[in-house]
Amino acid sequence: MPHIVLQLSGERDADLMQKSVQVIQDLTAEVLGKERGVTAATVQFIPADQWFIAGKALSETGGSAFHLDISITDETNTKAQKARYLREIYQALAALRGDLHQESYVHLIDARAAAYGYGGVTQEWRHQHA
Prior knowledge:
Blueprint: E1 3-9, H1 14-32, E2 40-46, E3 52-53, E4 56-57, H2 58-61, E5 66-73, H3 79-96, E6 105-111, E7 117-118, E8 121-122, H4 123-128
Helix pairs in contact: 1-3
């Protein structure tokens, strides 16, 4: 039941948005073992003149970038799975955007099961009642 927040540099691009969400949801299911049916995603485009790397706007330096936050339940994935996920997300988004800066980030947020959930129920409650 991850929640995905994806920020992409540049102007709104519906095709890029759809492809990015699809590849992220695919890797979230494949690598992290998360259920697609309860995965939610939001996407925001940040203009290149408002995205800075090393103090310089992308509108000045060129290239593209992304930032991905994904909330998952703590202790449900190994370090190796998380490392693979970061690597494969970067590679997949780089394939969609050939000019991707290395300074594009993925943040896996390990949320405690008692403090995270959906539908008004915590993940801890779901675990106890499975």
